[in-house]
Design brief:
Elements (H helix, E strand, L loop, with lengths): L1 E9 L2 E8 L6 E2 L11 E9 L5 E8 L6 E2 L10 E4 L2 E4 L4 E8 L17 E7 L8 E8 L18 E8 L4 E8 L18 E9 L3 E8 L6 E2 L11 E9 L5 E8 L6 E2 L10 E4 L2 E4 L3 E9 L17 E9 L4 E9 L17 E9 L5 E9 L15 E10 L3 E8 L11 E11 L7 E22 L4 E21 L4 E10 L2 E10 L19 E6 L4 H9 L2 H10 L2 E11 L8 E12 L4 E13 L6 E8 L2 E8 L2 H8 L2 E8 L2 E12 L4 E10 L17 H6 L2 H7 L9
Parallel strand pairs: 1-4, 2-5, 3-6, 4-8, 5-9, 7-10, 9-11, 10-12, 11-13, 12-14, 13-15, 14-17, 15-18, 16-19, 17-21, 18-22, 20-23, 22-24, 23-25, 24-26, 25-27, 26-28, 27-29, 28-30, 29-30, 30-31, 33-34
Antiparallel strand pairs: 31-32, 31-33, 32-36, 34-35, 35-42, 36-41, 37-40, 37-42, 38-39, 38-41
């Protein structure tokens, strides 16, 4: 038995102790066995007498089993269990590290193989006298399974468990890391061993800032050999982490779990299965300062094979829902990475795993900012399968709700799409809601979906008060759609909703903004195709009078009509669409602007069309524009050329009639085309006095069903085919 002990006393203490169990001897002959691995003991204890600090480290490795020759069995690897073998006293800072490793299982040429040793490392600290901060780290690694050169299966890898718990009146940092042992391989006609499971947990409280980080990696399966056999399956990984702070400082919690990969198959053996990982709210904590959570799930890769069946990639699920009332700022991130299916010598790839990342972060503390991010990875961007059906789905959903600024981001990454490649589905949805009456507080939502055959990218933002709502959606793939909506209400007797959508037979990038007095008027230049924007709608429900005056000064016809009507401008906006330069089919792009308000008295409503930009490759194009009030058509036009549209949308005033009471104006704009072409325009709206904000039905609305209908691209394509031009 190996033993290492350190006991140190003095002014500032540093001690390191390490012990390794010996390897068992070899065995010979049937009925005999290699020796078991040796045990080891370790400890490191210190007493700091000056407050200079305490730094202690202890590690121990179990001995490996001996090899079996001539039919002898392999010896057993030794398991290791450590519990608080480092410790001491100090009034200063504390740094403690503890590590345990299980011994390897002994191999055999034609007998049974030895089992691998497991590893457990548990560390606890709760001494309040240490005022200089506390850092605790614990590590555990399971032993590798024994190898077989006969017909016996390789043995399973050893399990690994790492646990840490600490309390500190100062700052605290916790790390727990566990790695399951890999399964033993077979080289003589048999199965590979399964990987060892990994578990990591951390829990801590602090008075001046806390962090907790846990990492668990399941062991990979060992190699299988021969037809009818298989590589070992990858092992599970599980994690949990907690960090709380009572001093108003930052608190950060991170958890990562990776499933083991399947073992490979040799000489016709099948590949093993990659392990799936599912995490749901495994991180938690609290503070009145900055609070952040990160959660990572990674599926194991499927095992490859030369001529046998290949293994499936493991699924990855990371779901995180956080609701907080105390943190000054809240950040939450969930990430999922699917395992990749194995491959064989012919280039056939196995089924990939699915990836789901979903995060919802809510804060009710006044003035608190919320950031949420969901990231999902499908199969690797660098894998280009030549056969098989590696179907997989990657989905990311992110929601942020705050009393001040709210930011939500959903990102999905598939492999680079190749025409004719197997099907992959990718979906991203981001929603941000800001409920605030503070100036310049708002919501931002972005959805980015890349590299898949079927794409769905959706971004939604909601803002109340004076805040800005921004949404951006991007999609790249063979088919699908990108959709963005922004909604603002409050501050004025009005609710405004902007929508933009585009089909993806290539790339679609769409954007919307809504606000009351924060955006002014911006019209992108669509006279060329280099903007990178395919559909947009920007709305300002309370424009700066100076900006309005500037626009009227350069648009005489609209200015004259507005002056004659006696109406007041209440909104400025712009919208437009253009065909993506990499489109491979006819696509539909749409934009919308919805204004809901209540008139104090019967009044006329005027639409002033200001400026128009566009470009046209000469191919057929269909541009549709309509205006309705509660679904009742006020205007419905279709243009077959950009020149006609330019003449209509440039400095043109339109009376929308007389209205009273509740009004719900919907401006809808659509372009259908395949070649390099696009157009956009700016406008103003004017009417009489509005009723007070109390007449609005809802403060933070859901999307109007007609707006959702507008974003249904198939409906748009079918309903805007009338080729007539009306001039007013």
């Amino acid at each position: 038995m190996a033993t290492a002990r350190q006991i140190v006393t003095g002014a500032g203490v540093f001690a390191l102790a390490s012990a390794q169990g010996g390897q068992g001897g070899s065995g010979w002959g049937v009925g005999h066995s290699g020796g078991d691995g040796g045990q080891a003991l370790v400890s490191a204890i210190g007493a700091d007498t000056s407050g200079a600090g305490l730094s202690l480290s202890a590690s121990v490795g179990g001995g490996s089993g001996g090899y079996g020759y001539g039919g002898a069995n392999g010896g057993k690897g030794t398991s290791v269990s450590l519990s608080n073998v480092v410790g001491g006293t100090t009034s200063g800072a504390v740094f403690l590290t503890q590590s345990a490793s299980g011994g390897f299982g002994g191999g055999s040429d034609s007998g049974l193989v030895g089992s691998a040793g497991s590893a457990l490392s548990s560390l606890t600290w709760n001494d309040a006298s240490a005022t200089g901060g506390v850092s605790l780290s614990t590590w555990a690694s399971g032993g590798q399974g024994g190898y077989s050169y006969g017909t016996a299966s390789g043995s399973s890898g050893g399990d690994a468990t790492a646990m840490v718990k600490g309390d500190s009146v100062a700052a605290i940092g916790l790390i727990a890391s566990a790695n399951g042992g890999n399964g033993g391989s077979n080289y003589g006609g048999g199965n590979g061993g399964a990987g060892g499971a990994a578990t990591a947990t951390a829990s801590g409280t602090a008075g001046a800032g806390g962090s907790a980080s846990v990492i668990a990696v399941g062991g990979s399966g060992g190699q299988g050999d021969g037809a009818g056999y298989s590589g070992g399956d990858g092992a599970q990984a599980s994690v949990s982490a907690l960090a709380t702070d009572s001093g108003g400082m930052s608190s950060s919690v991170t958890a990562s779990a990776t499933g083991g990969s399947g073992g490979s198959g040799l000489n016709g053996a099948n590949g093993g299965q990659g392990a799936s990982v599912s995490l749901s709210n495994v991180v938690s904590g609290s503070t009145s300062g900055n609070l952040s959570f990160s959660q990572f799930a990674v599926g194991g890769n499927g095992g490859s094979s030369d001529t046998g069946m290949v293994g499936r990639g493991g699924d990855a699920t990371s779901i995180l829902a956080v609701s907080d009332q105390t943190a000054s700022n809240l950040a939450a991130m969930a990430q999922a990475t699917a395992g990749i299916g194995g491959t064989n010598v012919s280039g056939t790839q196995g089924t990939n795993g699915n990836a789901l990342a979903s995060v919802s972060a809510t804060s009710s503390r006044p003035g608190s900012q919320v950031n949420s991010q969901a990231i999902a990875y499908g199969w690797s961007e660098y894998v280009f399968p030549t056969g098989g059906t590696p179907t997989g789905t990657a989905t990311a959903n992110a929601t942020a709700i705050a009393a001040a600024n709210a930011n939500a981001s959903a990102n999905v990454y598939g492999s680079a799409y190749l025409p004719g490649a197997p099907l992959m589905l990718a979906n991203g949805t981001a929603a941000a809601t800001a409920r605030s009456t503070l100036t310049n507080q708002g919501a931002n939502a972005s959805s980015y979906v890349y590299g898949a055959s079927v794409v769905s990218s959706t971004a939604q933002s909601f803002s109340s008060g004076a805040g800005l709502a921004q949404s951006t959606a991007y999609g790249q793939g063979a088919s699908g759609a990108a959709q963005a909506t922004s909604t603002s209400s409050g501050g004025k007797a009005m609710q405004i909703v902007a929508g933009a959508a585009g089909q993806t037979s290539g790339t679609a990038s769409v954007a919307t903004t809504t606000s009351f007095g924060n955006t002014g008027l911006y019209l992108p230049d669509f006279s060329t195709s280099n903007t990178g924007l395919h559909a947009f709608s920007y709305m300002d429900g309370a424009p700066d009078p100076a900006i309005v005056a500037s626009e009227l000064a350069s648009h005489r016809k609209v200015d004259h009509a507005l002056t004659a009507s006696g109406l007041q401008t209440f909104a400025l906006g712009s919208m437009g669409t253009q065909v993506s330069t990499d489109a491979t089919a006819e696509n539909t792009y749409s934009a919308s602007a919805e204004y809901s308000f209540t008139l104090a008295h019967t009044s006329g409503v005027l639409l002033g069309l200001l400026d128009f930009t566009g470009h046209d490759s000469g191919s057929p194009v269909s541009i549709s524009f309509s205006v309705s009030n509660f679904g009742s058509s006020l205007l419905n036009l279709t243009f077959s050329s950009l020149s006609d549209a330019d003449a209509y949308f440039s400095d043109h005033a339109l009376s929308l009639g007389t209205m009273s009471g509740n009004v719900d104006l919907l401006l809808s704009y659509t372009l259908i085309g395949q070649a390099d072409q696009g157009a956009d325009f700016s406008y103003l709206l004017a009417t009489g006095a509005m009723a007070n904000p109390g007449n609005l039905i809802s403060a933070v609305p859901e999307l109007d069903p007609r707006t959702l209908l507008l974003l249904g691209l198939g409906v748009l394509a079918a309903s805007r085919r009338m080729m007539r031009t009306r001039r007013g």
